[in-house]
Amino acid sequence: MTSDLSTPAAPDGGTESGAVLDGNAAAGEFAGILANDPTTVTVRCGSCGATQAFGQLQAYLGGPGTVLRCRECEAMVARVARTPRGTWLDISGSSSWLFLPTPGPA
Amino acid sequence: MTDTNTTEGPADGSVEVTPSVGNHWRKATLIGLHSQSWHSRTLALCVPGWTGHLPGQHVDVRLTAADGYSAQRSYSLAEPATPDCVAVTVDLLPHGEVSPYLAEIMEIGDELDLRGPIGGWFVWEPGDPSIGDGPVLLIAGGSGVVPLVTMLRARKRAGDSTPTMLVYSLRGPRDLMYGPELEEMSADLSAPGSAEVRLIYTRKVPDGHPRPASHLAVEDIQPPSAWPEPLAARVYVCGSSGFVDHATGLLRKAGYPDDRIRTERFGPTGVDR
Q1: ipTM of this model?
Q2: 85-104 in chain B: CB under 8 A from chain A
Q3: What pLDDT shows up at residue A4?
Q4: Which CATH class is domain B4-118?
Q5: pTM given for the model
Q6: Architecture of the B136-266 domain
Q7: Closest C-alpha to B177, from B35, B1, B36, B6
Q8: CATH 2.40.30.10 location in chain B
Q9: What residues does CATH 3.40.50.80 cover in chain B?
Q10: To pair with B38 at 20 to 30 A between CA atoms, which of A47, B257, B258, B263?
Q11: For the purposes of burial, counting CB atoms within 10 Å of the CB of B61, is it exposed (0-12), middle (13-18) or buried (19 or more)?
Q12: Which residues does the annotated region (Disordered) include (chain A) (predicted)?
């Protein structure tokens, strides 16, 4: 792995003590990277295959990066970290991202 | 009195809304303050060039200390779109890092960094054809009422008559936000923009309140009998993670399909650098 993202947020890493939020709260971080509003994107988990709106993913915000986990199986589906070298986006835990055909209301 | 006194836009409410994903930080200046409850207040902020937003969207707020340390949190937008102006309602988290400054210390003229509007999923817009004309059920836990009240205000401003009910769970009378406005909104259910409001006190009830203090139960989310197809309602739930889990459990038990339920969770966690 070449990623700087060495610290997975909870549950397995256990490095993060705050409450679990959802993808709505992580949208600001991802909106800076994606051209679209992330919250309306349908994400398929690469581990269990469940699909869910980005806004419904579990979000862990207090760690060194922003980590999103599947609401069904808790596998990590996406993460973003801003480092001195640049911004890392890792979506290897997801199998697809479905963007709405017409831009959402935002 | 409501905080609309300090933050409302033009009297006719007509605003050209062209929301876009706002991913760059802007300077915002505090121009108005209004107390909401004993531990929350609404901040009206001037943001030059703000292009509007939808009810339910939020902004990220960033505070930066002199040594460069910064902390970032998300807050729901507390008013329908008004040119160059946004409002957020901030609830004090006793050991929080950002909310004590916003809820107690920040003064008129002070600045902060803000980006947004963010999120097109947890939104409800009067007349949105994708939503249809089915009823709207709004369920709030604590300060989760903020984006839902923004939806109610937008609905009232638009003269929308979609049957709407707000179920608002709160600890006690002194935690009530938007009290007078909600009372006025629910006083005459035949008036345009009115909505049924149920206050669910979980620890302490005000004198004369018919429902004893207890957590949100399935009968509390029972739709009004006048609703023709209650299970066709679009449901919005906003609160802490625990509250959202509890409320969605009740909704599933009541037969609401998952694809009609949209949720937004808030909590003490944020991004600190």
Answers
A1: 0.76
A2: none
A3: 44
A4: mainly beta
A5: 0.85
A6: 3-Layer(aba) Sandwich (3.40)
A7: B36
A8: 4-118
A9: 136-266
A10: B263
A11: buried
A12: 1-21
| A25-49: pLDDT as tens digits | 999 889 878 878 899 999 999 999 9
Count of CB contacts below 8 A, A vs B? 104
Q: What one-letter code names the amino acid at B74?
A: S
Neighbouring residues of B123: CB distance < 8 A, sequence distance ≥ 6: A105, A106, B54, B55, B56, B57
Ramachandran sector of residue B36 (left: φ over 0; alpha: ψ -120 to 50; beta: rest): alpha
Instruction: Pick the closest to residue B122 from B156, B147, B146 (CA basis).
Output: B147
DSSP secondary structure string, B167-236?
EEEESSGGG-SSHHHHHHHHH-TTSTT--EEEEEESS-PPTT-SSPS----GGGGPPPTT-S-GGG-EEE
**B62 at the A interface (CB within 8 A)?**
no
Decide if B121 and A60 are in contact by the 8 Å CB cutoff: no
pLDDT in tens, B233-271: 899 999 999 999 999 999 999 999 988 899 999 877 544
Q: How far is A90 from chain B (nearest CA, A)?
A: 18
pLDDT beyond 60 at A6:
no
